[in-house]
Structures are given as C-alpha cells and as structure tokens.
Amino acid sequence: MKKIYILCLLTTAVVAFAQDSNLYYSGIFFNHKGKPQNFLKVFNKNSGIYEMTDEKGFAILAAKPYDTLVWNNGKNTEVVMSYRLKELKSILEGQDEKESVAYIYSKTYDSLILGSSPDRFSIENSNLGLSKNSDKYFSSVRKLKRKNDSLYKLKSSHERYLIFNGSFTTSFEIKSRNSIPQTQSRYVQGRSENGNLTWRGPETNELFSFGPDILSLAFDGQPYEYDQNGRLMSSDKGISPAKVYNNGIFKTTVGYNNQLKVNAFIKEGYQERARLSLELGQQKDQMYFTDQFNISNTLKSKLNATFKGYTINTVFNYEENKATNANRIGLFNRIYQNALLTPISFSNGQDIFLPNGLQRSYSQSADNPFFLFEQENKYNYRDSRRQFSMDLAKKWGDFKLNTSQSYENDYFWNFDQYKPSTYGFPNGILNERTQNNSLYHSNISGNYTWGNYEFKNIFTANFILNDRRSDVYNSLTGRKYNYQRTSQDYGFNYNMGISDNYFEMGVNLGNSFYISNTSDKNAYWLPKANAFLKFNDIFNIRRVNFKLVGAYTKLSAESEITMSYASYATTLLNAESSYQYFPVYEIESFKNLSNTDVNEWKIGGKLDLGYGMSLEGEYFNRKIKNDVFSFFENNQLKLKNMADHTYSGYEFNFNYERLRLGQDFYVANKISFFKYKDIVDRVAAEYDNWAISGFNDIYKTLSKGKILGAVMGSYFKRNADNQLIIDEFGFPEKADGMKIIADPTPDFVMKFNHMFNYKRFSLDINWEWKKGGQLWNGTQAVLDYYGRSYQSGEERNIKNYIFQGVHSNGNINQIPVDFYNQNQDVTENRWSRYGYLGVAEEYVQKADYVRINNISLSANFPINNSFRTLTLTFYVNNILLWQANKGTDPNQSFYDTDNGKGLDFFNLPSFKSFGCMVSFKF
Q1: Which DSSP category does 686 fall into?
Q2: CB neighbours of residue 187 within 10 Å
Q3: With contact defined as beta carbons under 8 Å apart, do 226 and 346 qualify?
Q4: What is the pLDDT of residue 123?
Q5: Does residue 908 contact residue 334 with C-beta atoms inside 8 Å?
Q6: What are phi and psi of 564, to 5 degrees?
Q7: CB 628 within 8 Å of CB 641
Q8: Tens digits of per-residue pLDDT, 515-563?
Q9: β-pair type (665-683, 690-694)
Q10: What is the rounded distance in angstroms from the CA atom of residue 598 to the CA atom of residue 680?
Q11: At 234, is the secondary structure helix, strand, or coil?
Q12: Three-state DSSP state, 335
C-alpha cells in the first residue's frame, strides 16, 4: 500500500469535504505505456471524486493540497502539491489562446461578468461523506468501501512489525542470621552437690548448666563415649585443660536466582496487536542452617491479543518447590532450642550416634541438633502449582463485556519424621501429609458508560463464582479430610464523575450478594458507598490541590478452606512439653458457621503542595463481627464464631517525588506514620480469655474489652499499692493463676523511603521505626532456668541481695538472699525456683526497634546507545540496627504462625543478606 498524507483528524476531514475549496488540479494523464490516454479514469482517493480524460488525455479534478490521485487501476499515483492547484476559471482560460482586443464598453457585457455563474465543478453542494465507522486516525488507506451513493468508509493501513525483546537477570545472595540471645560460656553441665559445684556428664541426664567454672576443670584423657577427650575432673588431676565447645548451628550461606524473560509481539503502526511472553526461573535459597535449602523452578507464559474489537489475555503458570525440610512440626525451632541449651562442656559435632545406635546428646531429655537434621530423603517437602487463566473482553460502543476464567491445582507433600531415640518419641514418629487443592474462579462483568469527561456515568454488574476443593491426608492417623465450597458473588455498581478545570467529584454506589454452601446464612445486603471531592489550583496557585475522600463498605467472608490450622495444637501443651508437638489434626468441617461480617468506613484527604509534593491522611474503623477462631473438642479441631472486635487507626503520608538538588541530581522521599489498635467488643459465652495461639500456660488471648492478642501469663503477687509481696525465703512471691501481662500493639510505626538519583546511578534506602509494643521473651526464661543465659552466668555469684517489697503482713522486706546458694538444691536458685517459664511477667520486654530494611545501589549502562541496557544492583536487606529486647528480631513469629507475634519461644532469628543482581535487557 502506498502512503497518503492527511492534514487533520477524521472529524475535520468530514467537515472539509462539505466545504467549497474552489481549487482544481489539471493535467494530462498517461497510460502504462507513457502515452496520453483518452477515457482514462482518474480517482481522488481523499474526496472520492473521479473524472474521465478527454481525447487528449486531459482531465480536471477538484482537489486539495496533499490529496492522492490514482489512475491505471492504482498503478500510478500522485500526491497533489499546493502549487499545482488553481481555480477552475484559470484552468479554463489557460486552455484557450489569448488575443488582445480593443476595449469595448457594453452594459450587456457588464451584466454578464458582474453576475454570479454556477461552478459546475464545485463540490460545495455535494452530499458525499465519510462513514462514522471509518478509522479515526490513519496515515495510509488500506480499504475504501462505498456504502452507498453518498457514503464512503475508509480503513487505515499500517505496516506490521514482529519484535523480540526480553531480559535476563541473575543474582547471588549471601545470607546470615540476625541477632540471637547471648549465652554464658563459663559454667559447665552440672549442679551443686554437698555444697560443691560438680560436673555431671551426659550419662547422668543432667539438664542444668549450674556446674563449676570450666577454667577449674581438665580432661582425664580416658576413653569416653560422650567425648573423645575424656571425662572432666579437677584441673590439678587432669591431663589437658577443658575446652569450651562451640555448638553453633548457623553459618553463612550463598544462594542464587536466575530469571529469563522473552517477549515476541506484533505491532501494527503504534498499536500492539499480539504479545507472547515466556518467563523461566530457578532459585536456590539457602537457609542459615547446615545443609538446609530449597529449590524452586518457575515457568510463566502469557498471550495477549486484540482482533476485531476483542481483547484476549491468557496466562499459564507452573511452579514447583522442593526443600530439605519444612518447619511444619516446629523442627527448626526444636533444633535451635537444643543448640542454645547445650552446655559448653559438650560437643554436638563430635558424633551423632553412640555405639549402641542411639543418638548422642548431652542428656536423654534433650536432642543433638545434628541428629535432628539427619534424614534419609534428600527432600522432605515438595509442592507444585499449576494455574491457567483467560480473560476475554469486547466493546460495543459504550458497552463493555468482560469474562475471566481461571483454574488452579496445588499439591503439597510433607514428610515429617523424628527418628528413634528422639526425646519425647523414643520409638520415633512419622507422618506423611499430602494436600491437593482445586480452585476454579469465574467472573463475568459488564459495564455501560454514558456521558463525557465533564459528566461521566458507568453502570456495572458482575457475577463471580468460586469453587474451592481441598483434601488433606495424614498417614499417622490414616485420616482424610475433604473440604468443598462453592460461593457466588453478585455485584451492582454505579460510578459517577464530574470534572472541570478546578473541581472534580466522584461517587460510587453499589450492593452485592454473597451465597455459599458452607455458610449457615447467605448475605444479600452488602452495600458500599465511596465519594471524593477534589479542588484544583486552590487560590489560583498552580498544582495546589485538595482532595477529600470517604468510604463505607460492608463485606461478608468465610475462613479459607485451603489453609491449615493444625499449628493450634500448641495450645494443648505446656511450654515445658513443647517437645511433644507434632500436629496431625486438621479442621473437621467448615460448614454451619456464620459469615464473618466486616463493616468498614474511612475518611481521608490529600493535599498537593506543588510539583511532586503531597500530604495525605486517613482514619479507618473496621468492625468485624462473628470472627472465627479455633478450639479443640474431644480431640477434634474445630472452628467457632467466637468474637466481635474493632480494628481502627489512622495513617499519614508525606511524599516528595522529585526534589532537584543539583545538575542531574534528584531526591525523592516518602514518610509514613501508622497507628492502630484492635479491641475485642464481644466474646461468646465460655470463651472469654480464650487462647488463640501459644501454649497452655502462656498464650495470646481473646478477652472482652482488651486488645485482641494480648499476652496472658503468670505474674508476681502485689498489694494494693502495687508493691511486690516477698515470701518467707526473701524472694518475690508468684501469684496464682494468670492475667494479661503484655500488649503487642505498637504505639506507632514510621516508615521512611529515600531515593537518590544522579545521572545513571540510583541509591534507595528503606528503613522503619517501631515505637512501643511488648513481647514475652520465653527464650530468655528457659535459658535462665537451665543456667545457659548470659545473665545467669554473670549474676549467679551475687550474695546477700535484698529484693524491694513487703511481706504479706505489710513489713518491709529485709531478708538477704544468694542468687545461687551452693548449699541448696539447684531448683531453689534465683532463676529455677519458679519453674520452667519462671514468672512470665518478669520476661515482658519492649518490642521497639529501628531497622534498615533495604539499601540498594543501582547503575544503568546503555549498550551502543540503544534500548539495550545493563543494570547492576548491589543491596543489603534486613539489617537490624537496634532493638530493645534481648534476643531475636521482635518481628519474628511464634512457630512461624500468622498470629504469633508477641510470643518469643525460640523464635528463629531473621535473615540479613548481601547480594548483587545483574540484569540485561535486550
């Protein structure tokens, strides 16, 4: 197709055709042999007018500048230049020979020349026009179709291009642990006997580390199955000095991630007609434990296309993961716990097994971490996910119809095992857990748009169908659980928008239905209302805008059936019995529960303070009714609608997108402030102070009028003046029962994002500050109890200490105590006298922290001044600068559960990583 040139848009062209240009093109037209041709049809593609040449090949056509003339059946074309156009009169006069005549005055002649004569070549009164269905923008004509005698339809023609591009990204990451509790490295396994500190070896099953100072001991050098250096004895009798064994289980590891993405797409002019994307990835993520890692492989493909007004998007994703171990049974927490509690006089790494085939550990009531790592399979965890989705959209004028379908199949396999001689499972235990999920989603929506930019209305209706199926099998119990839910959502929405130069307004009103086969009551009244007002260029100051928003939404939802609630089994155990944790119970059924209803409203505003600077804030209040929590009944795990609670708070954000500090030097900053609370309004009868996570003797509670998830635990006895009650032995007295001792809710959280750009270099810094909130540090409590904590090592020789407080009779305490009296039983010392967890109140610590989440430095390097670029990025993640508590990152969760923050019982330390990423775009 030859290109043509047009001066204006289609609407302008239609008007132009209706006007009288009074300009014509004339000339002699030749046939394909280069000779003048009579009765040759010459066609103006732009106006649709044609003329036939006379016997000399001459023709006159009405034309405009840059019109295209076509003859010889399209083999010859010519673009009309403006200087070739003349008025018809001039053309006709040029055809006749001119002769000079004498001036003769005649009234008849004057009347003839002064009068208006019709122009038989004019198109002023022409009825020809363009169809409104013609292409609006075109630079060349693909198709000209005559609809009738007075209507033509033009279709544009564009060159088509097949383009390939993509990217390859590779990265490696060095990972190590963050902070862990500090332990003492002076005192060995043992206790006091007859007033003397005595080393007690693993064969005694001693758990305490309240023995003598290791500097006073030496090895005897005799064969000993628990230590290749021999037994410990007094240094004046031994052969070689005793050594402090390092029982650390963490190491620095390196992982990698490779991603290849290739795109192939067809462009027609400036429009993309079809795109095919393929993405391949592989990642190896090393844990900070010895030989623990997971490998994931991904395949993603997308096809997007537009044809005849249809838009289609298809996606296929495949992902598989395999790991040496998962933490479903708390394996890693157990390993970490035993590593911290191992006395400095015992080496876990010397050997894993004793000559009798049982595990070699510092006590039969403890485990060797490396024995727990020992496994027969290379991978004890696998999962795979297949997902296919397709979206199809079609627009007819102001009406648009969209359909979306997706199907997903997930498979999970856990091989959970403790070998024989594991503490708590002398004969070993094994469970093979499989889970299959089948998820289908369908969404059909249609919307009709009426109006224009100044006053626009959109009416939308949609139907959503979800079919979710899941089956779970545990080989230990031989029990298979089957779940199925089919839910339907019907939604109706009306959007209205008003806009002019200085004012904008929007309103969204709607209602939806929720119908499900697992709910005991369907919801037919779920309204929502959103609105905003925006004032532009306030006080005639450019880019100073103010926007006010408000919203109300009512939702109805149910508990997710593909999620496992088995970790709730920790609440059946006391913390001291945590070694028995091995979850195999799943939810019995998701039926006959009421929907959880959410009524949320919020109001906020945004103030634009010029180019790139803005301040916005929002207050929200979310009322959750009939929320669902877990409970055990007759050894069956069930769900119940237990409570109502209100989650409310506010958030402020300050943003400066592009602040120029110098030539090619720009800075962007964002600061956010967030504060919230979640108060329990109602608790079902008999479930007040219910445990929602944790152990039986220390847990997060559901208590009316209190913070949801407040920590419930033991506490010291106090009088009406809040003074400690001191017992007859001189130590603070532990009260009976439990009460709320900690609130995990922070006072506020502030997040900071800074980005610095200089030419092709960019530096990003992301950090946050959390102020307030508390956690219970059970890790510290257990380390204190066994004498492994740093504090118990430093303070055990304190004598004649007097605790401040009063006795039950009101007298001020004057009884001096020794923190560790060698003449008393080991369980009477300062840290062991209160039991395994001590007094929980004493181990409540602040959860404040200042953390740098991410620092990255990137540089872009164009290759050969083309769109190909090479990007280098160096980054560090999760560097914890400061924390108020002693031990692990306060953001870590109890047994990796979703609602376990605020409880620290050998929570795994967080990662800090250093990495480099190279990305090449081609």
Answers
A1: T
A2: 24
A3: yes
A4: 43
A5: no
A6: -90, 135
A7: yes
A8: 999 999 899 999 999 999 999 999 888 889 999 999 999 999 999 999 9
A9: unpaired
A10: 14
A11: strand
A12: helix
Q: In the block, which residue shows the tokens 């956690």?
A: 775
- Output the furthest CA–CA distance in the chain (Å, rounded): 154
Residue 454 in tokens: 């100044």
Closest CA to 672 of 642, 649, 640: 649
Partners of residue 758 on adjacent β-strands:
665, 761
Residues 6+ apart with CB under 8 A from 811: none
Instruction: Report the alpha-carbon distance of residue 320 to residue 301 in Å, rounded.
Output: 15
Mean pLDDT of 7-33: 54
Q: Is 722 helix (H, G, I), strand (E, B) or coil?
A: coil
Token pair 């304190």 is found at 798
How far apart (Å, rounded) are the C-alpha atoms in residues 541 and 539?
5
- Cα 485 to the center of its chain, rounded Å: 26
Cβ-defined contacts of 885-889 (< 8 Å, 24+): 885/775, 885/777, 885/845, 885/846, 885/847, 886/181, 886/182, 886/777, 886/780, 886/845, 887/179, 887/180, 887/181, 887/777, 887/779, 887/780, 888/178, 888/179, 888/180, 888/181, 888/779, 889/178, 889/179, 889/849
How far apart are alpha carbons 414 and 230 in whole angstroms?
41
Tally the C-alpha atoms within 13 A of residue 663's C-alpha that lie toward its C-beta. 0
Question: CA-CA distance, 361 to 349, in Å (whole number)?
Answer: 10
pLDDT, averaged across the chain:
89
* Cβ contacts of 65-69, under 8 Å, gap ≥ 24: 65/7, 66/4, 66/5, 66/6, 66/7, 67/25, 68/2, 68/4, 68/5, 68/44, 69/25, 69/42, 69/43, 69/44, 69/45
Question: Do the Cβ atoms of 766 and 853 come closer than 8 Å?
Answer: yes
Question: Distance between CA 585 and CA 481 in Å, rounded?
Answer: 10
* 8-state DSSP, 106: -
Least confident residue range of 11-25, 359-373, 657-671, 681-695: 11-25
Contact between residue 501 and residue 574 where contact means Cβ atoms under 8 Å apart:
no
Q: What is the mean pLDDT of residues 40-45?
A: 78
8-state DSSP, 517: S
- 187/783 Cα distance (integer angstroms): 13
pLDDT of 130 = 52
Do residues 336 and 288 make contact, with C-beta atoms less than 8 angstroms apart? no
Position 67, amino acid = D
User: What six digits make up the tokens of 356?
Assistant: 């009798």
Q: Is-contact 68 78, C-beta < 8 A?
A: yes
